[in-house]
Amino acid sequence: MARIYTRTGDAGETGLFGGERVPKDDPRVAAYGDVDELNAALGLALALEPQEQSRDLLERVQRDLFTVGAELATPDRARLAKALPGEPIGDPEIAALERAIDAHEAQLTALSNFILPGGTPKAAALHLARTVCRRAERAVVPLARDGAAPPAVVRYLNRLSDLLFLLARAANAAAGRSDVRW
Q1: pLDDT band at 3 (very low <50, low <70, confident <90, very high)
Q2: Is residue 7 assigned to a domain?
Q3: What is the pLDDT of residues 67-90, one digit of tens each?
Q4: In this structure, is residue 16 part of a structural domain?
Q5: Residue 156 belongs to domain spanning
Q6: Are the C-beta atoms of residues 136 and 158 closer than 8 Å to each other?
Q7: Which of 51, 91, 160, 170 sits in a 20 to 30 Å window from 125, CA-based?
Q8: How far apart are CA 29 and CA 26, in angstroms?
Q9: How many domains does the chain have?
């Protein structure tokens, strides 16, 4: 088994998929780093009780986020098409998020106030994931504007943050906890 350390990043550079070397603070690297952090935040939310709550949905999102990370780490679109196990993020994945949003929103009481993030540990972790998602979205927007990231990734992250907000509310509701009004 190969060692985990390679020493190739010791000078502050990293390799994109395809071999190009860029500084570790390159906007593309920052964007896929934020997506990676989002994926880890979702892993934390999944580890919290009740573990089965939204498990299939969140695991599918985690897989989608690996695809997003690959898209952001691969400037060469032809190479990306060969490397992905499936299709890039697009309308089907966005539509799946919208269906999940609609289903969860229909089960929750309508909000007339802003709410404070928190509640159960699971809800708090989902709120944290939502804010990381918003940061990832902010990092991807300039890349998409410059043609360095697909616009579908921005739409996906935008919908995902909405879904995470609703999942946090649903976690509190399932535990019998009310949202805390601002």
Answers
A1: confident
A2: no
A3: 999 999 998 888 888 888 889 999
A4: no
A5: 21-181
A6: no
A7: 91
A8: 5
A9: 1
